[in-house]
Amino acid sequence: MSRPDPATPAPPAPSDPARAAGHAGKPSLRERFDALRNLPPFLRQIWATSPALTLITLGLRLVRALLPIATLYVGKLIIDEAVRLVASGVHVDSLAQAWHGGQLDTLAALLLLEFGLAVGSDLLGRVISYGDQLLSELFTNATSVRLMEHAANLDLEDFEDPDLQDRLDRARRQTVGRMSLMSQLFGQVQDTVTVISFAVGLLVYAPWLIALLAVALIPAFVGEAHFNALGYSLNYAWTPERRQLEYVRQMGASVETAKEVKIFNLHRFLIARYRQLADKFFKANRALARRRALWGTVLAGLGTLGYYVAYGYIAWRTVKGDFSIGDLTFLAGSFRRLRQLLEGLLVGFSQVAGQALYLDDLFSFFQIEPEIASPADAAAVPKPIRTGFVFDNVGFRYPDAEHWALRGLSFELRAGEVLALVGENGAGKTTLVKLLARLYDPDEGRILLDGRDLREYDLDQLRASIGVIFQDFVRYHLTAGENIGVGQIDAMDDGERIREAARRSMADEVIESLPMGYDQQIGRRFKTGVDLSGGQWQKIAIARAYMRDAQVMILDEPTAALDARAEFEVFQRFKELSQDKTAVLISHRFSSVRMADRILVLAQGRLEASGTHEELLAQGGRYAELFELQAAGYR
Ligand SMILES: Nc1ncnc2c1ncn2[C@@H]1O[C@H](COP(=O)(O)OP(=O)(O)OP(=O)(O)O)[C@@H](O)[C@H]1O
After folding, report:
1. The pLDDT value given to residue 312
2. Does 429 sit in the ligand 1 pocket, CB within 6 Å?
3. pLDDT digit string (tens) for 524-570?
4. Ligand 1 neighbour 427 (Cβ under 6 A)
5. Ligand 1 test: best mutation among 161, 402, 430, 588, most atoms within 8 Å of CB?
6. Test site for ligand 1: of 157, 165, 394, 425, most ligand atoms within 8 A of the Cβ
7. Cβ(398) to ligand 1 under 6 A?
8. 445, 397 Cβ separation under 8 angstroms
9. pTM of the prediction?
10. Nearest residue (CA) to ligand 1, atom 12
């Protein structure tokens, strides 16, 4: 299992996945502030996505930040000029007369300026959101790619771990969900500059009012921070249910499940399950939203009160003659905007802190390190393999499993031999193959290849030397040719090699009967797709193993859907084509198994017997018993 492991104290607290437990409740204030430390790496990633776009949207925001105060100040000048004109007693009958007399020049110029500022601000706003959108999308794409790359490196065991699946689910959401964080963060910078510009303007008139405003807004800020944290922990705690919800929804409406859903009439059951889960989620969210709305109203009311106290004070000073009418509009406007801005900033700050908590999910996913990796001074995999593999007292237990899937297993897989594995369901055959391909590492004992521990070899080389087709092989909804080509991805364009692989696995007849041959899209998922029978899919999957020039070939029961003759032929060919190769085959059909040079009989994770078909029959143990059972079925 990859680390960080809950038992070992991992990196700084908030990114520690062990913290997950703590999230059943609300994250503490400290955790919330700690989460802010995710912002610098977040910003670095945005910068790395596109330095030019980042600079442009930030630069334009700075310019736009100064426009509100400029607009308000021009507004004040307009009113003062109008009041001056009225007070000066200039009498004008028509607009044309006043215009020609030049009395309205200043007023007109000011109006034009304010118009220019309004248009400019709007234009800047649009350019900024355009830039943000581009940057966000680029960022989302880059993060998604990083997520896929990282996921590709993780161990198989990690994928089977529900905790990791939850974390992956949350991380995946964050690649899209955090787009707004970027705009918000940049918006905060812009608003801060605007606030400073207003504050400087106001400082000249009534400095202590600014303090009053700030104090009045604190309750709203605290409330917002509190509810953001609650929202996050709700979201966090509900990850498993949300995945279940997603799963049920998919089961209810997908090509893969449609057949069974219809036959078993499962749709009502699925819908009921979905409703039940969705309803619980909805209720929890609604309760939170209600409390948030209620408290938000009360706390925002305090902020409004502060604003009106300040407004009253300015009105009083104007009546007293300290301020002009223009000053009154400027001050009242400034205060209103300042209040909105400060409120926005404080709330925004707590939202940013809240969103930064979500970044933990993304970053903590990136922190998971695969355990199965090449060592620093990895040895090259021998080519050709000289002696083969040795299992030396190997034991393996799946994480959290009570029973050992394999225990005390010792045997040799000699270079060049064809070995068959038999045993009842759950005996450990697939697990053995997974260990051979280093999809897992043994918990006990070791596996040697030409006398060296498998863990000392270069992992990529090792995997490239082994061609495995599992019983639950993947049906790629790609073309028939691509379905084979994925077996050796760098030879995907080598049509001849693909056709040769198809001939070997007898998939060529299947493919040639398709309307578009190797270019035929297969699977039902896409419009042009043609579906195949189970056995036809298997032949194509087996061709994948022949695509690679692997030294070790493993067929883990991918022939179950083949008819008896086809399986016999596939294995016959497999044996012939594995002449100079080491091969392992798993099958429940004794007609195929007996072709092997040697047969291992596994039972409950242990090696029970080994030998040739004849030897094992002569021994009269489980093998003979199972063989007889099958043979009797055909008599
Ligand atoms: N991913 C897994 N996580 C936990 N336990 C597993 C996992 N895969 C297999 N097991 C358990 O390990 C044991 C061995 O399983 P394995 O798949 O190796 O058996 P097998 O011999 O290949 O069986 P079959 O003939 O049914 O394919 C079984 O008890 C099974 O329940």
Report:
1. 87
2. yes
3. 777 788 888 888 888 898 888 888 878 898 888 767 777 777 777 77
4. yes
5. 430
6. 425
7. yes
8. no
9. 0.68
10. 405
The predicted pLDDT at position 359 comes to 80
Please tell me whether residues 257 and 358 are part of one structural domain: yes
572 within some domain: yes
Is 354 in the same domain as 479? no
Residue 423 alpha carbon, nearest atom of ligand 1: 21
Do 477 and 357 share a structural domain? no
Same domain, 238 and 99: yes
Residue 407 lies in a domain: no
Nearest CA residue ID for atom 5, ligand 1: 398
Q: Please determine, for residue 49, whether its predicted confidence score (pLDDT) is greater than 70.
A: yes
Reported ipTM exceeds the 0.90 cut: yes
Residue 559 within any structural domain of the chain: yes
Amino acid type, 389: F
- What is the b/e burial string over 392-426, where b = at least 16 CB atoms within 10 angstroms of the residue's CB? bebbbbeeeeeebbbbebebbbebbbbbbbbbeee
Please write the tens of the pLDDT for every residue from 131-163. Answer: 988 988 888 888 888 888 888 878 888 777 777
Q: What is the number of helices (H) and of strands (E) in the chain?
A: 23, 10
Percent of the chain surpassing pLDDT 70: 92
Nearest CA to ligand 1 atom 6: 398
Domain with 549 in it: what CATH number?
A: 3.40.50.300
Total count of domains within the chain: 2
Q: Do residues 348 and 462 share a domain?
A: no
Residue 399 lies in a domain: no
Q: Identify the residue with better confidence: 9 or 155.
A: 155
Share of the chain above pLDDT 90, in %: 20
Please tell me the distance between residue 401's alpha carbon and the centre of ligand 1 in angstroms: 11
CA distance 253 to 550: 39
Say whether both 474 and 606 belong to one domain: yes
Residue where a domain terminates, one of 332, 352, 367: 367
Do 351 and 427 belong to one domain?
A: no
Q: Which residues contact 109 (CB under 8 A, 6 or more apart)?
A: none
pLDDT of residue 41: 87
Q: Is 552 helix (H, G, I), strand (E, B) or coil?
A: strand
Whether the CB-CB separation of 555 and 545 falls below 8 Å is answered with yes
Distances from the Cα of 3 to the Cαs of 41, 158, 211, in angstroms?
A: 22, 10, 49
* Residue 447, pLDDT above cutoff 90: yes
State which residues form the domain around 625. Answer: 417-634
Q: Is 160 in the pocket of ligand 1 (CB under 6 A)?
A: yes
Note the pLDDT of residue 335.
Answer: 79
Confidence class for position 598, pLDDT limits 50, 70, 90: very high
**From the CA of 412, how far away is ligand 1's center (Å)?**
21
Last residue of a domain, one of 367, 399, 430: 367
Whether 621 contacts 608, CB under 8 Å: yes
Distance 253 CA to ligand 1 centre (A): 29
Instruction: Kindly report the protein residue whose alpha carbon is nearest to atom 16 of ligand 1.
Output: 428
